[in-house]
Design brief:
It is built from 2 helices and 3 strands. Strand 2 and strand 3 form a beta hairpin.
Length: about 80
Amino acid sequence: MLTLMSESDGSLHHMLKKNTDNFCSLHIKQYETIRIWEITFNDFFEIMLIPVKFRLWLSHVISTTLLSSSLPPEHQNIS
């Protein structure tokens, strides 16, 4: 499970929708002004099917995402 959080500007949603054929499931939740994306991969190796540019972008998003302490405890960790 990969959980991403971003302000709800739609850009992350657009990137994920463009690449959802590589994912088993994609859940989008709204918490105040933050959107939370929970992505479950089909299996461990399928992450390699994601285009390199998108994988690098995901890594960048994960490393630069700030987790808000106002979120419920179950949404404060990136796993």
